[in-house]
Amino acid sequence: MLRWFRFFSRWPLWALHAMGWLGGWLAWVLSPTYRRRFLDNVRQAGLGWRTVLGAVGQAGCMSAELPRLWLGRPAPLQWAEDQAAVDAYASGQGVLFLTPHMGCFEITAQAYAQRFGQSGKPMTVLFRPPRQAWLRHVVGASRQRPGLQTAPTTLSGVKQMIKALKQGESVGLLPDQVPPRGMGVMAPFFGHDAYTMTLSVRLVQQTGATVFLAWGERMSWGRGYRVHVQPMVGKLPADLLDAVTAINRAMESLILQCPQQYLWGYARYKQPRQA
Fold first, then answer.
1. Beta strands of the chain (E only): which ranges?
2. Global pTM?
3. 9 in a domain, yes or no?
4. Is 188 a domain residue?
5. Is residue 86 part of a domain?
6. Which residues, in sequence order, are bridge partners of residue 186?
7. What one-character DSSP code corresponds to residue 52?
8. What is the tens place of the pLDDT at every residue in 210-226?
9. Which of 13, 84, 142, 238 is deepest in the core (most CB within 10 A)?
10. Per the structure, how many domains does the chain have?
């Protein structure tokens, strides 16, 4: 498999996305379970089928582009608006970047590391090692690059992120990822309770970090990616459940900006696994 990853890492982005687009639709056609979950999540968000039609192919693009992002040459990159990121970097305070399963979330950390992380304030991202040994090596190597560090999904990883934020560095999380049992609370997400991580809230409470929302837009025809960054409106409530709910609402708002690139097939409402 590693050989295939290296082979595809040399492909142009447009070809990978074309292959991924076809793969996304193939998964849609062949898997009734995936198709049903996709449509259920779309309806739960109050959206129509035509609004999110493009997300079927985009889900395949998300997988197909990984060899290029992990092992290939840097992909074309631009910032849609960079003032929020510049202000966050210049503030000297810890910054927590929250990104949903939307667009290319791999590129947001790479973009920050490329522009800001190599100047003394690296970004630390939460990292759950894959079960396959070969993939664990590939992913680990790809995310350990100049200006970018990884933290494991363990107590030591949490301590690492707290330390980074207290030192005025940045941390990146996917807050809509279902955490293991005991590491989250039930909170509304598009009007239905979903098991939601509390880690993002606890990091802010313990470090006073500023929260920003970020996502990487996948541009058409393999033209690269456009990074969007915006500050989260308002301070998080002191109550844990209220704060988690506020983050879920922020994620909803971000997703509705471009529902065609959200991973609607993700099992967001599944039961948490044991830690």
1. 77-81, 95-98, 123-127, 148-152, 170-173, 184-189, 192-197, 210-218, 225-231
2. 0.91
3. no
4. yes
5. yes
6. 195
7. G
8. 999 999 999 999 999 99
9. 13
10. 1
